[in-house]
Write a structure and sequence with these properties.
It is a single chain. This protein has 5 helices and 14 strands. It is an alpha+beta fold and 204 residues long. It has one domain: Pnp Oxidase, Chain A (Roll). The strands form 4 sheets. It has a 7-stranded antiparallel β-sheet with strand order 3-2-6-9-10-5-4. A hairpin with a 5-residue loop joins strand 2 and strand 3. The chain binds flavin mononucleotide (FMN). Flavin mononucleotide binds next to strand 3, strand 5 and helix 2.
Length: 204
């Protein structure tokens, strides 16, 4: 079947695309509210876009009442944020943290999640996540009739759990994807976990 997207409603386009482009990684984003409490929310319109400079992208819409989502406002106002890659056993907490709460309500406190200092970075990271990326706002643009925000974040530091990383003799960093066990977003209300891992040398 072919679908001409210009003939579908924006809602149908959304539901079709999020089922087609799967799996999507999940950015579990910690940011700071203006009263300095910690905000946490998941975003699956997320990926790496460049490694020199190291940049990731988030695409953040608005709340149902048309106001700006807290993560977006915090990144714009305060610049710093931390992106975590949640593991599969954190699925329920990730989903819980997507509830629309009043501005300045802290999902980190509500879910009783523990944090750790993240080196010299001004924000902490979630203790139980195996990967955390310390980011600062790099560029923000707005697209479309609903002013969706495209946020580029400069990745300044990465935390990797000792259990999933090893350094080889040359000092190269190797991560064990199975131990990372990343949670991914599928369409509708579905989530996924990592399936088989295949090793295939790169052809040049
Ligand atoms: C797995 C998952 C992925 C999500 N991805 C996005 C996304 O990419 N962009 C977006 O605007 N909202 C996304 N949401 C909805 C936000 O998490 C939700 O609006 C949340 O309340 C925003 O919180 P905040 O206002 O604290 O930033 C997603 C929700 C879930 C459960």
């Amino acid at each position: 079947m072919n679908f001409n997207l210009s003939q579908l409603s924006p809602n149908k386009v959304y539901f079709t695309l999020i089922q087609a482009v799967v799996p999507r990684p999940i950015a579990w984003v910690l940011s700071e509210n203006d009263d300095e409490t910690l905000n946490l929310a998941p975003f699956s319109y997320f990926n790496l876009v460049c490694s020199d400079p190291p940049l990731l992208i988030l695409s953040i819409g608005k709340k149902r009442d048309g106001s700006i989502k807290d993560t977006r406002r915090n990144i714009i106002d305060r610049s710093h944020f931390v992106v975590h890659l949640p593991h599969a056993t954190q699925m329920e907490q990730v989903n819980e943290s997507s509830r629309e709460l009043p501005a300045n309500a802290s999902e980190v406190e509500q879910l009783q999640l523990s944090t750790e200092p993240f080196g010299p970075f001004p924000l902490p990271r979630l203790r139980d996540c195996r990967i955390a990326l310390a980011c600062t706002r790099y560029q923000v643009s707005e697209i479309g009739p609903n002013q969706q925000a495209l946020i580029l974040g400069l990745i300044e530091a990465i935390y990797i759990d000792d259990e999933i990383v090893h350094l080889d003799a040359k000092g190269s960093i190797h991560l064990d994807a199975k131990k990372l066990d990343p949670l991914s977003r599928l369409g509708g209300e579905e989530f996924g976990s990592l399936g088989d891992v295949f090793h295939l040398p790169r052809l040049r």
